[in-house]
Amino acid sequence: MVAGSAAARYHCSKGAAQLSEYGAFAPAGFAVLASGVMATISAPGWARRKRAGKASKRHTVSAKVPACQYQSLKPSATLTMSARRPASSPASPGPIGAECVRHERSPQSTFACTHAIFRGVFMLVARRLVRRLLLPAALIALTLALPSRADEFADAAGVRYQVKPDLVYGTASGQQLKLDLYLHRAAAKGRAPAPLLVYFHGGGWVDGRKENAAFMLLPYLAMGWSVANVEYRLAKVAPAPAAVEDVRCALRWLRANAAAHGADASTMVVAGDSAGGHLALMAALLPAGSPFERACPTPDATRWNSGAEPAMNVAAVVNWFGIGDVEAMLDGPQQRHYAIEWFGSNSEREALARQLSPLRLVRAGLPPVISVHGKRDPVVPYSQAETLHAALDGAGVPNRLVTIETGNHGGFSAAEAQAANAAIRQFLRQQGLPVAP
Known about the structure:
Low-confidence stretches: 1-109
Distance between the termini: 44 Å
Strand order of the largest sheet: 8-9-11-10-12-13-14-15
CATH class of the largest domain: Alpha Beta
Order of helices and strands: EHEEEEEEHHEEEHEHEHHEHHEHEH
CATH topology of the largest domain: Rossmann fold
Helix content: 25-40%
Number of strands: 15
């Protein structure tokens, strides 16, 4: 069919009412008239007419016919259309016939028809040429001429941020527990304070260090936020639940001390990858007064005068392929040895694993959760994310699962990582958090 060569339009009334009944109300596609000529169906509408003294509705569908073929059609032709069945319909109706009456006629000569065909082919080639060659070239030139968002962030990072490394937030198992603060200087200049992102590295609770996660912090720094990069005790120092205790203590320390270092902890978002994703979930989902934070140091004003436990008030959770059901990782088809190592010789490991499973803590009123998970993840099965987010849906907790269809356990392509971070920014904006473009 040649674009823009309509010479006749057909309004279809008899039998056309079925089109809306089966979800074909605005098909914007092709249909076949009785003669075999292709016709483009435009948006249907309703027309009023009088019948037996009462106003009634007649469903009309406009059929747009190619200029060079309209003469083969009779004034009345049958429109045959395969309507798509909506989910609510019990069965597909199959082709639907409707009586169509031509109401407009514009004869064209053979020369005009040939000219219309040539013009259509020329326009098609021209559009493809622009789309495939000229438009990409223009975009490349524009990209080279203008500084990118990444360039602007990198150029200004040295003057916008300062780093305070290895701040001690606690002592346990004979070692100091430390975190690094990446501080946005906006607060020091009197501007509105930036949210604080608290990040926990991965490593199956048995390996890793905070410095390994440094590049995972960049998207949040580019958003204009401050970041705390937290270390915690690994299984070789202290088995479960030590890591969970540490991340809760880190949040409490930041709540009490961040302001003294130039950060604002009134709005905290927690994030992490793999085991760190699990720890971020636990840090946000554990209720106030949990036994896993009883050993956390408390400011003197509370320690000597009160037994109340401070609330964490986490604003959101960013979970990169973290574990949602720890118990499932100890036995059965999802069993993984890193989880077994984390619990060591604990004879009550199944009961403790249930207490350390974010899935068991899902309830109404939790902070929003977004997860990024590869569908081919062999380390933390993708089903872990599916089960967790199904539970969040059931509890009415705002959440989103970003699926990387060909993704493994991290190691995503640049395009996949960019898409995931774009989804995270969008989700955080939806929660009312300030996110720089």
